[in-house]
Amino acid sequence: MILSFPDLDHTVDLELFENSPDCIKILRLDGNISSLNGGGVRALELDDAHQLDGKHWPSLWPGSEQTRVEEAVAAGRVGERTQFLAFCPTQKNSPRWWDVVITPMQGAVDDVAGLLVVSRDVTELVQAKEELARANAQKDTFLATVSHELRNPLAALSMAAKLLEAAHGAHPQISKISALIERQVDVMERLTEDLIDVSRITRGQVHLQLDDVDLRDIVHDVRDQLASLLASKQQPLRIDIPALPARVKGDRMRLGQVLGNLLTNASRYSPAQLPIEVAVTVSAEHAVVSVSDKGKGISSDMMPTLFELFSQAEASSDRKGSGIGIGLSIVKALVELHGGSVSAASAGLGQGSRFAVVLPLAASAITAV
User: Fold this and answer.
1) Which of 6, 32, 260, 342 lies in the 20 to 30 Å Cα band around 153?
2) Are the C-beta atoms of 85 and 99 separated by less than 8 Å?
């Protein structure tokens, strides 16, 4: 059966109109309700199918939403289709969130003669998102609290190891134990600092100290910082940097952290004695820092989530020394705070990998080019 509406060159399948679980309304151009389907009666918890006949639809919304609804109706009058998410309780004051779509209905002379409004109840979805956001906020608070609380006992452990070495340094076994404690404390301290950074990033509390910095200097800084790590695995570091400066607007310490994380990962996932390469290139508007290795590589199924927090831990839980998947998420966040991007490429497992950080050149560098 077909349902026709006065003054409209438009028909609606009556069975579809009545049986849809969505709240479907036909509005006149003044925003008053002309028709409401059975799904709308149920969704709005009405007592009567004609309870809202002739009512001004925007006025049925709470005050905070009325302006948005009025604007959507006005847009529909001039032929624009609109969609929005808004809150409006039912007639019995049950809280509801609605995904609303307003579609202009054409008249016999090709102008807009009415509006078709489909409102879908998405309350459960909105509540689930809110609950997820609350859980995420609790996770951030937990990470921040645990990270800060770990600092003091780690400092005490480090001090105890040094005192033990000083008091019994002549005893070979005690010296080995002291060195072992200090190495493990160093690992835990780096992990703690990473967790603190994750907490700061997710809370938007990372403040960059921006200045014109030369990426060549950052490469040299990180090379010196990681010299002992690379030497312990006899991994040569090959550096290819341009003769001219590669200046970007950035925070020298944070960009050093980015490159340091990438180099540490390259060392961790590469066998001993295989080289690691760092290259800097400059184009008209960007500088690129790349880190390449001939190590374990990255599987194609891991690529989509490679830079997500903890994804590495999930994908690599059986690999000793694989970390917990914090470093790359920090890299991505810090690079994006600099207005840049980071990408990864690998031919597959056992084929090595290449990470590339793209940063906009400083204004002075662009002018010079």
Assistant:
1) 260
2) yes
Q: What is the pTM of this model?
A: 0.58
* 3-state SS class at 246: coil
**333 and 221, same domain (yes or no):** yes
Query: Each residue of 188-223: b (16+ CB within 10 Å) or e?
Result: ebebbbbbbbbbbbbeeebeeeeeebbbbbbbebbb
Residues 216 and 302 in one domain: yes
- pLDDT tens digits, one per residue of 102-157: 999 887 666 888 999 999 999 999 999 999 888 877 777 777 777 777 777 888 88
Q: Is residue 346 located within the same domain as residue 263?
A: yes
> Do 182 and 217 have their domain in common?
no
Is the separation of the CB atoms in 324 and 337 below 8 Å?
A: no
Closest CA to 359 of 285, 307, 306: 285
What type of residue sits at position 342?
A: V
3-state SS, residue 69: helix
User: Final residue of a domain: which of 105, 121, 137?
Assistant: 121
State which of 99, 121, 143 marks the end of a domain.
121
| 71's tokens | 């604007």
Q: Are residues 338 and 294 part of one domain?
A: yes
Q: Which domain holds residue 26?
A: 2-121
Residues 352 and 218 in one domain: yes
Strands (E) across the chain are located at 2-4, 11-13, 23-27, 33-36, 82-87, 97-106, 112-121, 211-214, 237-240, 247-250, 276-282, 286-293, 341-345, 353-360
| Structure tokens belonging to residue 1 | 């059966």
Q: What are the Cα distances from residue 274, in Å, to 216, 235, 248, 268, 316?
A: 23, 5, 31, 11, 22
User: Cβ–Cβ contacts within 10 Å for residue 121, how many?
Assistant: 19
Nearest CA to 87 among 132, 55, 126, 33?
A: 126
Shared domain check, 113 and 170: no
pLDDT greater than 90 at residue 279: yes
The tens digit of pLDDT for each residue in 202-227 reads 778 788 999 999 999 999 999 999 99
66, 114 in Cβ contact below 8 A? no
Number of domains observed in the structure of the chain:
3
Query: Is the distance from CB of 354 to CB of 297 less than 8 angstroms?
Result: no
Higher pLDDT among residues 347 and 138, named by residue: 347
